[in-house]
Design goal:
- The protein is of the alpha/beta class and about 240 residues long.
- The protein folds into two domains: about 5-120, Rossmann fold; about 125-235, Winged helix-like DNA-binding domain superfamily/Winged helix DNA-binding domain (Arc Repressor Mutant, subunit A, Orthogonal Bundle).
- About 40% of the residues lie in helices and about 20% in strands.
- The protein contains eight helices and twelve strands.
- A five-stranded parallel beta sheet has the order 2-1-3-4-5, with helices on both faces. Strands 6-7-8-9 form a four-stranded antiparallel beta sheet, with helices on one face. Strands 10-12-11 form a three-stranded antiparallel beta sheet.
- Helix 4 (about 85-95) packs across helix 8 and helix 6 packs across helix 8.
- The chain starts with a strand and ends in a 12-residue tail after the last strand.
Length: about 240
């Protein structure tokens, strides 16, 4: 059974989230603070974390940073802090998704189910060698411009999807559906842009003169690095 940890200091919201997840047959553990989470011996054993940002003493950003040292499980922020800067901060720190309050329970379940489908789906057992980048889908190791790059789960999924479709222009909607696994709207498609921005920063790319990810204005993105060994492009 998939286990989800919920960190939320508002009792009513936390209980609503827990009840919603239980109806979908997830196992749920509730915490009202970061301190309570980290006091729990199995704090790093969840399959997914739902974190509020505005928490007493230790905010969601700090909890995320501390969790990333012990687990690779995906993390979704549930928060009233809904500006683009707030989202960019959370995603840059390694959050895998960001749901703004108030949200519907149907949206919450859709996002959780989509995240777990992505996590349970194995990446193709394939190594991609490009001129300036190497990607090992099995070990999730990325070397860009000769340097090892540490990516979040969602950043890696985004990169490998783009790389496996090298030279093909992918719309934001296609990327969102393939990498996040849910339908799109104006808000969620901006999630793609935010992840592209943080991914570019980590791999040493440039929006002005891209080495890896090219922006196709008004449509989406394209991976542009050339294969070092054309044999790697065969299925």
């Amino acid at each position: 059974m998939i286990t989800i940890y919920v960190v939320e200091d508002d009792d009513a919201i936390r209980e609503l989230i827990a009840a919603t997840l239980l109806t979908a047959e997830y196992a749920v553990k509730e915490f009202d603070s970061g301190a309570a989470l980290f006091a729990y011996n199995d704090f790093a054993k969840a399959d997914l974390y739902l974190l509020d940002i505005m928490l007493p003493n230790m905010d969601g950003y700090k909890i995320l940073e501390k969790l990333k040292k012990s687990t690779d499980a995906p993390i979704i922020f549930l928060t009233a802090k809904g500006t683009e800067m707030d989202k960019a901060t959370g995603l840059h720190l390694g959050a895998d998704d960001y749901i703004t309050k108030p949200f519907s329970v149907l949206e919450l379940l859709a996002r959780v189910k989509a995240m777990m489908r992505r996590c349970q789906k194995e990446s193709p057992a394939k190594k991609l060698n490009f001129e300036k980048m190497k990607i090992d889908a099995d070990s999730k190791i990325v070397v860009a411009l000769g340097k090892s790059v540490k990516l979040t789960y969602k950043e890696f999924e985004l990169l490998i999807y783009l790389a496996q479709n090298r030279g093909r222009v992918l719309s934001r909607e296609q990327i969102l559906s393939a990498v996040w696994g849910f339908d799109f709207d104006d808000v969620t498609t901006r999630t793609v842009d935010i992840h592209i921005k943080t991914l570019r920063q980590k791999i040493g790319d440039s929006a002005g003169k891209p080495l890896f990810i090219e922006t196709v204005r008004g449509y989406g993105y394209k991976f542009v690095d050339n294969l070092a060994d054309e044999d790697e492009d065969e299925d």
